[in-house]
Amino acid sequence: MSGLIALLLLSGGGIFMFSRAAQGSIPTINIDKILSQTKSPAKEENKVDEQFLKDQDILARTVWGEARGQGYAGMQAVASVVLNRLKRGGFGNTVAQVCQKPYQFSVWNANDANRNLILAVNEDNAEFQRAILIASRAMHGNLPDNTGGADHYLNITVTKRLRGGTLPSWVDLSRKTAKIGAHTFLKLT
Question: Residue 107 is part of which domain span?
């Protein structure tokens, strides 16, 4: 990748942009400092910005943890499922709540081997950079749903291997909407 350009939308409409050359390093950004320097006096607006940034970060980590190695379309599909769940309700009121609802996205489960990886990954990882881009597009409403409205997915091969050849009772393959990468997507709600 020749470089990274990132934009951070600030309250009051300001934009903070940084870039790096291929061999440079990502600058450290103090979000609290940036938010405190915005021209908007409304503290409520800053809370919204903080929640937006938290949601975007958690979505990027979820997307990376669940679909790294499956390309852009696979990561896009996971982000789409999160947004579909948010729209339908019952999974949480924020993107972070949807992603971190117990036993929904396995990378957030305390006993999942991927949990430590998603907490430690940073912008030096090229696939995480892709996940950040996808999360940003999703959070700004610029990510098409490539799942046909799916609200669940699973890797059938891995699931059967872990469960002795069976699928969980919630899986209804007649509700399949897409197969993207290693995941089968389902619209169950």
Answer: 3-186
